[in-house]
Write a structure and sequence with these properties.
Number of strands: 24
Radius of gyration: 27 Å
Number of helices: 4
Distance between the termini: 101 Å
Strand content: 25-35%
Strand order of the largest sheet: 3-2-1-24
CATH architecture of the largest domain: 6 Propeller
Structural class: alpha+beta
Order of helices and strands: HHHHEEEEEEEEEEEEEEEEEEEEEEEE
Largest sheet: 4 strands, antiparallel
CATH topology of the largest domain: Neuraminidase
CATH superfamily of the largest domain: TolB, C-terminal domain
Helix content: 10-25%
Shape: elongated
CATH class of the largest domain: Mainly Beta
């Protein structure tokens, strides 16, 4: 055996070790691409935090090709070594295979990280680009609220069946509670239209979630499309909603006049939920669950790279305030409010139990939310002042009550 033989073996083992590293990265990337949480080991921090920018099919195909290379190249190298049967081949073939695999695997992962990274760790360039699209805040500018009466709409199961929820409305002090929906179906997640003449809500049809509309004047219901967690765009001409099964989903926009749809969430964000368009129509807030815990992201409504806004454990259900100066969101136990640039953040609720599903009053001075003893309820709706140091007030007592939304419903002058 020549003196160079041990060195060749060392080189072989080093290159095969790099091959294993590249293969591990490739498999992790493929798992992320398919919407699964990355394995919790060393490779996770080397992976892209999110894979964006390319169409879903292209990005998915590119990442799934890496495990193929990881498996295919060593097999081809072994076949080549057996076929040639020359003394040098068993060493040269693994060396070439390992080197090629290491370069391709690590290079592809580095390129993926740099080119498709969503910069969810607060990348300055992406943050600056999104901030530039925000309107300049004018905290002292007077607001002219529309004529009408304030109403809080919500879902309640008080009719006797704990699994069947109906739409209800009440005054902001909890009085005047009335049932809105009449159909014998499941009704949840009501949200007002910008002009407060309609609601969008989630119903069921043959076991599937369906986005629906409710006319405030006629009390008529209309199915729109398959989906859930819908809310209106600021112009009232479209809806943003989630479509997907449990544990998965993408955010879509639907034009109500034409029925045309467009996916808004990045292709490889596979667990999106609770979309909410900003009042000026420039940004979309939504939650995504990349590592088995939801986080809040902002993305330009016309497309671009998302930016992480709130990474609290279980951060979900973002809702814009009427002026767009704040967003509310829930964590696993409490309600928070945060500015779109992340400059300021405040905890709204401080009580025991679990607080979820916040809704802003039209003047941004009060917030309604749900409170329950645990994550599964039962829920009651409470109201809390955002300006005065006052105790929250319980607004509902009967049944379990969820998903409040607050709007100023137009009325004729003679009925005001």
């Amino acid at each position: 055996m020549t003196e160079a033989a041990p060195r060749k073996r060392i080189v072989v083992w080093v290159l095969l070790g790099l091959s294993v590293l590249a293969a591990g990265l490739a498999v992790c990337d493929a798992a992320v691409a398919m919407g699964n949480p990355a394995p919790a080991f060393l490779f996770r921090w080397l992976l892209p935090r999110a894979v964006l920018g390319a169409p879903r099919l292209v990005a998915l195909a590119a990442q799934l090709a890496l495990p193929g290379l990881a498996v295919g190249l060593p097999v081809l190298a072994a076949i080549g070594a057996l076929a040639t049967r020359t003394p040098g081949a068993p060493v040269k073939a693994p060396v070439i295979a390992g080197l090629t695999l290491a370069v391709v695997g690590l290079g592809a992962n580095l390129a993926t990280h740099r080119f498709l990274n969503a910069a969810s760790d607060g990348n300055a360039e992406n943050a600056e680009g999104i901030h530039g699209s925000l309107p300049a805040p004018q905290p002292d500018a007077p607001r002219v609220l529309p004529r009408g009466v304030d109403k809080i709409v919500f879902a309640s199961n008080r009719e006797g069946n704990p699994w069947k929820f109906d739409l209800y409305a009440m005054n902001p002090d909890g009085s005047g509670q009335e049932r809105l929906s009449k159909a014998e179906r499941y009704h949840m997640q009501p949200r007002f239209s910008p002009d407060r003449t309609q609601l969008t809500f989630t119903s069921t049809r043959e076991g599937k979630a369906v986005v629906c509309l409710f006319d405030w004047a006629t009390r008529e219901e209309k199915e729109v499309c398959e989906g859930m967690q819908s809310s209106f765009t600021p112009d009232g001409k479209g809806l943003v909603f989630k479509r997907g099964g449990r544990g998965s989903g993408q955010v879509w926009h639907r034009d109500l006049a034409t029925g045309k749809e467009r996916r808004l969430s990045p292709g490889l964000y596979a667990r999106c939920a609770y979309p909410s368009a900003s009042p000026d129509g420039t940004l979309l807030a939504f939650a995504n669950n990349p590592e088995m815990s939801y986080k809040i992201y902002l993305i330009p409504f016309r497309g671009g790279a998302p930016r992480l806004l709130a990474g609290d454990k279980g951060a979900c259900d973002p809702r814009w305030s009427p002026t767009g100066r704040w967003l509310s969101y829930q964590t696993e136990t409490h309600i928070f409010m945060i500015q779109p640039d992340g400059a300021e953040k405040f905890q709204v609720t401080v009580g025991g139990g679990v607080q979820h599903y916040a809704a802003w009053s039209p003047d941004e001075k009060t917030m309604a939310y749900c409170q329950g003893p645990g994550p599964n309820g039962p829920w009651q709706i409470w109201g809390v002042s955002l300006e005065e140091d006052e105790d929250p007030v319980q607004l509902t007592t009967e049944g379990s009550n969820m998903y409040p939304d607050w709007g100023r419903v137009p009325v004729s002058e003679e009925n005001e």
